Amino acid sequence: MTDQLSYQVTVEELAALMKRTAGVHVDPVALQQQADDVFDTFGLDSLGLLGIVAELEKRYALGLPEQAERCKTPADFLALVNGALKTGV
Q: Containing H/E element for 4?
């Protein structure tokens, strides 16, 4: 049996995903500092967040919890996604 690999989505990766999937340019430092602000603050709407969720599901071959596409802040999103990646659920 192999050890389960532990993946974590960083703020930098989230900023890159926001740019690639939704065309939203955000500085990773600003995203980190304002992680409790709503995604709207950064110009990301629900469709953009859905694109990020789809990209992560494809990347990690794992269905993320339905709540991921309803997260309001980067901090909540990263906590939920990283928790799911850690547990594999």
A: none
Give CA–CA dist 44/62, Å, rounded: 23
Q: Is the dihedral of CA 78, 75, 80, 72 positive or negative?
A: negative
**pTM assigned to the model:** 0.89
Cβ atoms of residues 22 and 48 within 8 Å = yes
The count of other CB atoms within 10 Å of the CB of residue 21 is: 19
Q: Using one digit for the tens of pLDDT, what is the confidence trace for 45-63?
A: 999 999 999 999 999 898 9
Closest Cα to residue 36, out of 71, 64, 69, 65? 71
Give CA–CA dist 10/48, Å, rounded: 18
- In 1-89, where does DSSP find H-type helix? 11-22, 28-33, 46-60, 74-87
